[in-house]
Amino acid sequence: MSVEFVRFALAGLLIGLANVIPGVSGGTMAVIVGVFERIINVINSLTTLKIKKYDVLFLSLLAIGIVLGLLFGSNVLVVAFEKYPYRTYAFFYGLILFSLYDLKDEVRRFRMPEFILGFFIVVLPYALAHGGFSRNLREVSAVEMYVLVPASGALAGASTVLPGLSGSLVLMLLGYYHRTIEIVSRFPFKVTGQEILFLISLAIGIALGIGLIVKLLSVWLERARTSILNFILGLLTGSLYPITPGFHGTGNTVTLLVWIFIGAGVLFVLKKLGTRHLKVI
């Protein structure tokens, strides 16, 4: 039981780390560590007030891990991506690449339309992200703070849940990413009241976005399991494109393979920590 608790907290930590980096999906990480469907089911139960005590513990440990991952990632992992982008992206590439090997066994009937839809939903936003910009909080109006910021958070929250999509990438497109990560890196010290209000507004939007997309996914899982499996397979495959190491830095083939292997090794350890074989959906 205690090993399972460690696995939940570690899964949350990795999901939190993934959410810090644009192009790296928290939903993808949830799939990789084998907690994606459980998150969907538990949050859906939470919205209907039918949640069990063990699920509350699961969600609490996951949340603690995510918060720690966000704090750690905003201070340390961001530096790794800035100074060692080729190796760091190779590590995440290895995680996703080898998670596809497990997912293929779950997809018993391949459906091209859902796969293509998932693939391009990931690839197209990344192509647009190069036009991203950064907003100045000093110029934020009341309408933006109480309407646009929560709405942006809702879009980011929904994107965070879907494997392959990056909530950070959505925030970058909308102009809030750089400011958010800068505030989080200073939290809870050296933050102004305006910045705290911004984080609260953003967090409310993210919670609403997650709740809505989880409800939709829960219905889809019940009614069209094969369809959503192919959709998720497309999302994961598409997520390999934005984190291709060569897009973010330079390095040799040996370095690439070593860090891909390390990423695969982390996945192997996480699978061993589980009480059952990693099963995505």
TrEMBL record:
TM ranges: 6-36, 56-80, 86-103, 115-133, 153-176, 196-221, 249-270
Keyword terms: Membrane, Transmembrane, Transmembrane helix
One protein family per Pfam: VCA0040-like
Top-rank taxon, per record: Bacteria
Keyword Membrane: yes
Name this polypeptide is given: DUF368 domain-containing protein
